[in-house]
Amino acid sequence: MTLADATAGASIHYTRDGSTPTAASTLYSGPISVAATATIKAIAIKSGLTDSAVASATYTIDASTGCPTQSDTPNFGPNVHIYDPSMSSATIQAQLDAQFAQMKDTASAQFSENRVAQLFKPGAYAVDDNVGYYTSVAGLGQNPGDVTINGHVTVDAFNASDAGNATQNFWRSAENLAINPVGGNRWAVAQAAPFRRIDVRGDLQLYPASYGWASGGYIADTKVSGQAASISQQQWYTRDSNLGSWAGGVWNMVFSGTTGAPANTFPNPPETTLATTPVSRDVPYLYVDGAGKYRVFLPSLRTNASGASWANGSTPGASQPMSQFYVVKAGDTAATINNALSQGCNLFVTPGVYHLNQTLNITRANTVVLGIGYPTFVPDNGVNAIQVADVDGVRLKGLLIDAGTTNSAALLTVGPSGSSASHAGNPTTIQDVFFRIGGQIAGKATTSLIVNSNNVIIDHIWAWRADHGKAGSFGWTTNTADTGVIVNGSSVLATGLFVEHYQKHEVVWNGQNGKTIFFQNEMPYDVPNQGSWMSAAGVNGYAAYKVGAGVTTHEAWGLGSYCYFNVNPAVNSYHAFEVPNTPGVEFHNALTVSLGGVGTITHVINDTGAVTASNTTPSNVVAYP
């Protein structure tokens, strides 16, 4: 590595052990060889001038087998569409419209195997991009402003069958670009539809044009110069962003590290606001450099963050060349993917559906698995889909794991049982990773996500046992699944936790010092009778979010659990949240709702909180204990 300073005649002094350099530190005289993992810090000094700020860079040297060199300009396969500003707007628009026509219809496209990514190279585009199912839209610049859409990137209640609401607008995303929208940009989505690293130069409308219901949603690392309006959205979470202003809120609107967010006023209006996000790390993303080669940028860890990571310049972090990524595309199997992982490769997973006859094993620290266009892993014959070792810094982003028809014990496990290592300085991140049990096929999995490692960041997941889908793919004895998420590791943080319709506890948190910012849940719709849904003798139903009896420290903000027992409206759950009665376990701003008064939840947390009303209004608990 080399060091330089803009001031002529300045001397540079550096350290290799992470300590703060001074004039007595080693004098820099030429390139430094870094042969082992180290943090280099440097300072520039010149007589008569104030010393420079300390510069710091951490280099991780991985001694495992290196990835056989891959192409820096890879073939991403037929489902990745790359646009260049030299193409005519009419040509691009025609292609976008054709892809949208295939992915638009709620009845036919929602459970299809179509997958697509639309990637825009740096430049400006005069297009309107309507975003359908299983579609990822992303800019290929290093920062959002490198790609500008002079038009819209839109999600709405597009179909007559939607009846004007957007509650099934799942599985679509937008990322890493700027939008100059005339009249505002509409992004009316439900679950599994992240809106990340976007510079909205105007208003952002999170509700359908019809003002019908929407059930979202998630924003991160984004700037909105105008007003972000939720209006008919039932719930929403916004993290590490900058808003001109915010309007609206139905039941549960949560903000952390977001300038321009409303004040903390829950329950009236139902806004929960934290000044900062305790720990966050923005998603890895693909970009193209000045030489036309593809790279993946890896943002740095942030603590007590506020505002978009790029609000005052480029996102801090480092990048890796595509030569270190194996591109997964049509024809790849579990064996070819595992072979790439064992050779030290990261994975770049292109749009498609991939059946796995063996578990994907991630054993190397700092492995990146980056998906675009909702690539879908389906574990066959009862195998678990993905197992991550108890190592530092694994990043999983942009995947859909769809349970197979033979029961899997778990779909994704991070760390083996009993993991005890600290990963505070370089945690594993699980971001935009979605789990589906049923809907497409009659899937079965006992648990969707098990987190045994410490310090893991769960940043926007949707674990969903399907309440609707193709005929024969859902039902109480068809798409069976006990629990969405089990956390055994300590100091695990969830920012944006969506877990719905599991047949026992939706979330079980056994690890100490856990934190959740925003939880959205619907209990299972299809409970046949009370006797089949009892968590203990005399206790009706299962709490959606259970903190283990031995936990002494846990804190959560902005949590909603809803019931809609449409198979048997006489069904009741005693409470939505079950926690130890200890001062170190604190819940802030929790609520329950009975949708249409179909079924009841007696209490919000333990024995606290009123029974759900019959008119779809919340029962609220501002603080517990």
Structural commentary:
With 625 residues, this protein is mostly beta strands. The strands form eight sheets. Strands 5, 6, 7, 9, 10, 12, 13, 14, 15, 16, 17, 18, 19 and 20 form a 14-stranded parallel β-sheet that branches. The longest helix has 15 residues, at 89-103. The mean pLDDT is 96.
Would you kindly provide a brief summary of this structure?
The protein is mostly beta strands. 4% of the residues lie in helices and 42% in strands.
Tag the structure with descriptive keywords:
625 residues, mainly beta, 14-stranded parallel β-sheet, 13-stranded mixed β-sheet, 3 helices, 49 strands, 42% strand
Helices, strands, pairings?
Blueprint: E1 11-15, E2 26-27, E3 38-45, E4 55-59, E5 80-83, H1 89-103, H2 106-109, E6 116-120, E7 123-125, E8 128-130, E9 135-139, E10 147-149, E11 152-154, E12 172-179, E13 185-186, E14 195-200, E15 204-205, E16 218-220, E17 223-231, E18 235-248, E19 252-259, E20 271-274, E21 277-281, E22 285-288, E23 294-299, E24 301-305, E25 317-321, E26 325-328, H3 334-342, E27 346-349, E28 353-356, E29 360-362, E30 368-371, E31 376-379, E32 386-388, E33 395-402, E34 408-414, E35 429-437, E36 445-451, E37 457-465, E38 483-487, E39 493-500, E40 507-509, E41 514-522, E42 534-536, E43 539-540, E44 545-547, E45 554-563, E46 572-578, E47 585-594, E48 600-605, E49 619-624
Parallel strand pairs: 5-6, 6-9, 7-10, 8-11, 9-12, 10-12, 12-14, 13-15, 14-16, 14-17, 15-17, 16-18, 17-18, 18-19, 19-20, 26-27, 27-30, 28-31, 29-32, 30-33, 31-33, 32-34, 33-35, 34-36, 35-37, 36-38, 37-39, 38-40, 39-41, 40-44, 41-45, 44-46, 45-47, 46-48
Antiparallel strand pairs: 1-2, 1-3, 3-4, 21-24, 22-23, 23-25, 42-43, 47-49
